Amino acid sequence: MVEELLIRNGVVYDPINGVKGEKKDICIRDGKIVEEVKNPKVIDAEGRVVMPGGVDIHAHIAGGKVNSGRLFRPEDGRKGAEPKTKVCRAQSGYSVPNTFATGYRYARMGYTFVMEPAMPPLAARHTHEELIDIPILDNAALPLIDNNWMTMEYVKSGDIDLLAAYIAWMIKATKGYGVKIVNPGGTEAWAWAKNCDLNDAVPYFDVTPAEIVKSLAEANERFEMPHSIHVHSNMLGHPGNYVVTMKTFDLVKGTKPYRDRPVLHGTHTQFHSYGGTTWGDFESQAKAIADYINSNEHASIDIGSVILGDTTTMTADGPMEYSLYQITGRKWTNHDVELETGSGITPFLYSGKVSVHTIQWAIGQELALLIKDPWKVALTTDHPNAGPFIGYPILISMLMNKRRRDESAKEMHSAIFDRAELPSIDREYDFYEIAIITRAMAAKTLGLAEHGKGHLGVGADGDVAIYDITPEERDDAGKIQKAFLNAKYTIKGGEIVVKDGEVVAAPQGKTFFVTPECDEKLMDEMLTKLKDTFEHYYSVSFANYPVQDAYVPNPYEIRAPWRS
Question: SS3 for 454-481, per residue?
Answer without folding.
Answer: CCCCCCCECCEEEECCCHHHCCCHHHHH
